[in-house]
Amino acid sequence: MAFQVSPGVNTSEIDLTNVVVSAGTSTGGFAGRFRWGPIEEVTLITDEDNLVDQFQKPDDNNFEHFFTAANFLSYTSALNVVRAANTTTTDAACPKNATAASGTYVNVQIKTSESYYNTYDDEQGGTAYAVTANGPFASKWAGDLGNTFKMSICPADRPSATLTGTADWAVSTGVYSGTGTLFGIELRVGDAISIADETGLHIVESITSNTVAKCFSTSSSDSADADGKVGTRQKRSVFHTLATNMKGTVAVTADSTTVTGTGTMFNR
C-alpha cells in the first residue's frame, strides 16, 4: 500500500520477511531456583510436565522462577533450563545431598550426574565413596526433598561364606567329597565355590548328600586334585555380579541374534 503525504514524499509498506517463525518452534533459555535437579547444568525441557519431573513442583521460595519457565513452555516445546543454587558448601543456606540418618558427612553437594560418577562411583573411578564422612547413601540431587526418601537394600541372594569342614576334589570325575561338611545345607546347584590352592572357580553341578557333590572347574589350567581343602561359596546376586566371578567375554553383531563367547561355558 502506498499513499502520498505531500508533494515528492511517498510512504510505502514493504514486507521483507519470507517466513514468520512460529512461537511453538522457538527455543529459550532460563536459569532459576528449583527444589530439585542438577545444579549449573543445562537441561532441555519440552513441556510443563517434563519441568515438574526434572525440577519438581514449586514452593513459596521459588514459585516466581518456576512459573516463568512454565509460562514459556505453555506455548513452545524447547526450554534450556539451568538450576541456580548456592554452591558454597560451608554456607548453611547451601542445598546439600541428604544421606542416611546415621551418616556423619558434612558439606556434600553433588551438582550433576557426571560429578557423581567421577567422584562417588567406584566403578567409574570415583574415590569419595570410600570416605566414611560422606555417609553410606546420598540422594541423587541436593535439596530438602532428599530428606523425604526411603532406602531399600537388596543383598545378595546367596551371601559369600566359608563352607563347613574340608573336602577333596578330583579333576577326572569332578566329585567333591567332604569331611564334616554340610553340602546339602550350604550349597545349591549353580553355586560358585573357590577351593583353597585351586585355580579358578568351581561350579556345583549336583549335590548327593552333605558330604558328596559334583562340580566342574571354570579354568582349563586347573589340573591338580584338591585334598582336604577348605571351600568358600561365592555370593550370587541378580542385582550385581563381580567381574572376577564372570567367565569369558561375549560379542554380539548388530541386527544378529547370535552371541559369540570367548573363554565362556555356555554349554554348562
Would you mind describing this structure in some detail?
The protein is an alpha+beta fold and 268 residues long. It has 3 domains: 23-83; 90-150, no CATH class; 154-268. Helix content is 11%, strand content 24%. The chain contains 4 helices and 15 strands. The chain has helices at 48-55, 63-73, 113-119, 183-186; strands at residues 2-6, 9-12, 28-32, 42-45, 79-83, 161-162, 166-169, 175-179, 192-195, 202-207, 212-217, 226-229, 231-233, 249-252, 259-262. An 8-stranded antiparallel beta sheet has the order 6-13-9-10-11-8-7-12. A 3-stranded mixed beta sheet has the order 3-5-4, with helices on one face. A hairpin with a 5-residue loop joins β7 and β8 (175-179). The longest helix is centred in the first third of the chain and has 11 residues, at 63-73. The protein is elongated.
